Structures are given as structure tokens and as C-alpha cells.
User: Fold this.
Amino acid sequence: MTTAASEPSADRVPGRVWTVRLTGHADRTATVTCSTAACRMPPRSRDVTGLRTFAAQHAAAHARVATVHANAWCHCGSTQCAAHPDTTTHCAGGVALVLQHDPLVGRVWTLEEVCEACAPLIPNARVLARVSRSSHANQRRDGQAPAAQVPVPARPAVPGGFSSPAAQPADGQVYRPRRPRRTARPAQRRGQGR
Assistant:
């Protein structure tokens, strides 16, 4: 799935992240929480299977409603690529929306805007949407959006009081991404036969 960016800009904004978590309790009940405070969650329950299904559907609803921002900074890169610590890379490429979920554990669903370099390195993640290449090509060198933009379809309403966060910085506030720290590379070993 490819989405067109709604408002291309030279200013970078933080990559958004949504986390839906299923938490078990000592009395054999569980709760579902979402990192978006406005989302309504079901009450604590003993029906863990039902709550797990709800959590997966809730994460999918966030993915359906989110429009990937072409000017988003890689969320993974802003955390010093903690999602893939064993593999180093430099953030590069377009922006993608990925869903990270380990089916063996089955308790956490994380949606995040990351760069195309980090997306394949994140374990148990799959790309759900990408910013179309044409939105990058349509930006002018001065950072202003061209006059004619691809219209963005209206967002569908999601029943049940679901809401998507408006994770935009305040007017006039510009996101300055942190530069990733350099990690020491292990010394290369020379051949034994010399």
C-alpha cells in the first residue's frame, strides 16, 4: 500500500509511534492499553483471547487511519536504532509505516514511522504503507510544496470511539533530529595462515 503525503514540507517532524499492549495480572485477568490516551479500551477481563483479538484489531485500525508523513524523521533512528541493536545502518530512504508484533509473545503491537533502511532490520515487523516516491520527487529544492498535489482521500471513520493522534509539533516548532552516536566497530581479524 502506498499513500500520498498530505502536506510535504522541508521541516522534519518526529516519526509517530502507537503501542497497543496486553497486560496480564495476578488474578488471571488482563487489560489492553494504547499509547494514545484518547482511545477507549475495554474493561479488565478474564477473556484474554477476546482482549488479544481486540488489541490486534485496534492496532490495525490505527494503521488504516494513519497517513504516513513524507517529512517524518525515522522513529527507530531517534531511539538510536534500539529496535535492531545488532545491525547498524544509517537512516535513509523514504518513510514507511511498519507493524512490529512477535506472534510467539503476542502481547505488544507497535506501529511506527521509520525509514526504509531500518524497516527490514526490525525483527517481527512488516511494512504496511510507504510514502509514494512521487511525493518526494514533487518537492521543490526550496522545500516548498508544488502548487498541484495529489489529493489525499478522506479518512474513514472507525466505529467505537477510536481516534488517531494528531502528533504534529506546535506551530513554529521544528523537529531537529538527534544524530545517531557512533559505535565502535570490532577490529577485523586477519587470516590465520600469514
The radius of gyration is 20 Å.
